[in-house]
């Protein structure tokens, strides 16, 4: 089964704290903590001025996203999230 | 009888939990759970810059949509929904 | 006497439940129930980029509209409604 | 004395119930009842894309307008209203 | 001393009831009563599409403006108001 | 040390009541009293249609600004404010 | 590890009070105190009219930013912030 996000939606697999060995530790006090995740699939982009604006992230990118954005879904046992591109803050390289 | 959605409206038949054998299980805790459905008919798209922007979904597509979007109607005994395209998150292939 | 809607306004005659033999039954639980009606007259459309965008419905169309949109008026004893085009969800054919 | 509305403002003389012999009766239950009036003067229209968009009503038109829109003024003893064009729903012919 | 309004701001001297012999009497019941005033100075207009849109009023115009719009200032003992152009409803000729 | 405002931000030194010998006295009753100040530095303007829209005020201008707009900072002992251009109502000449 | 901000996001290292020897002292009374920081990395800018609008700050700039904007993260032990460009008020030179 394949989930194909529409428009500027992005399908993400959030990483658990154990998986994020990148050195990013999120402060416990922050009200809305950004979270790490891996991009699974991206939409074709939003329609603007008669063409689509391609997204800035691609499948495979490790990203930092706003924790409370998007919708949670469970696909074949995996917990995923569908976010809009604006909820992604940065790529972790 | 035929329902022809206007503009960027989409007519959808929500699938019951038994019908969604796709492996998507929605977490019970999520406040706004996305739901699966089958597209029955789509509008011609929104008017923008002197032409219509065609929708990204078509009749027959299996989609994931936001549960609280749109309007519920009952047509010939079937419970359907009319949603705006933005309430559809992804196509399930 | 003739009512000529302005811009993107549409004049509609809502149908009573007895008149809607189309098979559409609206769920009693829905907070905002779409309603059936017949288009009596339409405006010339909204002004955009130096021209008018014509409306997608025309006099005579049977339509599904959002129940709480628009303004109620009574003309020659008939109860009518003036709605904006966006409050019309679909054409019933 | 002459009142010249600015931009998309319209000067209107609301008609009393006795004057509206047009057959339009407004339901007492409607929260915001549209009201009949006669257009006295109109503005030159709103500035858009380097020109003015002319209004769709003209002095002398009998119109249906939203009751709670606009500002009430009294000129030479007459109770008038200054409305924006969007508050006018239809022309009564 | 000279006050030069910026952009679409307009400097106005509100007229007292005694000064408004124009025949306009504002109803005591109206929540937001339009008020008469004389334009003292106007801004160069708002920047739009690489040029300034000139204002529709000029110094010396007698105008009707919304009572609660704008900011009150006192210049050399005179009570004045700085309003945005949109708060001016009409020119009184 | 030099503070260089970004975009449409303006750095202002608010004047105390003793410094404002201009004759402008602000009414004590006004909820949001405009205040006088001297422009210290201005941004390059907002990006619009592929160029920057230059600001309408320049360093040295004496201006009237909305009291509650902007952010207070203290630089080398001086109390300054960073405001957006829209919070400036007029130039005092 | 490298954090690459997306779009108009900017990665900033906030400076502690001891590090800000610039002479800027923020008033204790201000509800939302601007804060000093050093830009670590910037996004490619927002997509507008078929191109990206480059940001006005660059890595290495010392900036004044709104305290409550953005998201806090901790990278390799350092407390950083990801802000949108609009939350940066000025460059400190």
TrEMBL record, chains A, B, C, D, E, F, G:
Subcellular location: Cytoplasm
Gene3D superfamilies given in the database record: GroES chaperonin (2.30.33.40)
Annotated InterPro entries: Chaperonin_GroES, Chaperonin_GroES_sf, GroES-like_sf
GO molecular function: ATP binding; metal ion binding; protein folding chaperone; protein-folding chaperone binding; unfolded protein binding
Keyword annotations of the record: Chaperone, Cytoplasm
GO cellular component, one term: cytoplasm
Origin superkingdom: Bacteria
Transmembrane feature ranges: none
Record CDD domains: cpn10 (cd00320)
Family stated for the protein in its record: Belongs to the GroES chaperonin family.
HAMAP family reported in the protein's UniProt record: CH10 (MF_00580)
Record's function text: Together with the chaperonin GroEL, plays an essential role in assisting protein folding. The GroEL-GroES system forms a nano-cage that allows encapsulation of the non-native substrate proteins and provides a physical environment optimized to promote and accelerate protein folding. GroES binds to the apical surface of the GroEL ring, thereby capping the opening of the GroEL channel.
Complexes and interactors: Heptamer of 7 subunits arranged in a ring. Interacts with the chaperonin GroEL.
Descriptive protein name: Co-chaperonin GroES
Species whose genome carries this gene: Candidatus Nealsonbacteria bacterium CG23_combo_of_CG06-09_8_20_14_all_40_13
Primary gene name: groES
């Amino acid at each position: 089964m394949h989930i194909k996000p529409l428009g500027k939606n992005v399908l993400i697999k959030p990483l658990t704290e154990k998986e994020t060995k990148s050195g990013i530790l999120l402060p416990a006090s922050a009200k809305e903590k950004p979270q790490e995740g891996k991009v699974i699939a991206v939409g074709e982009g939003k329609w603007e001025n008669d063409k689509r604006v391609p997204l800035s992230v691609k499948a495979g990118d490790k990203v930092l996203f706003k924790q409370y954005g998007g919708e949670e879904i469970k696909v074949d046992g995996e917990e995923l999230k569908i976010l809009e591109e604006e909820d992604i803050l940065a790529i972790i390289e």
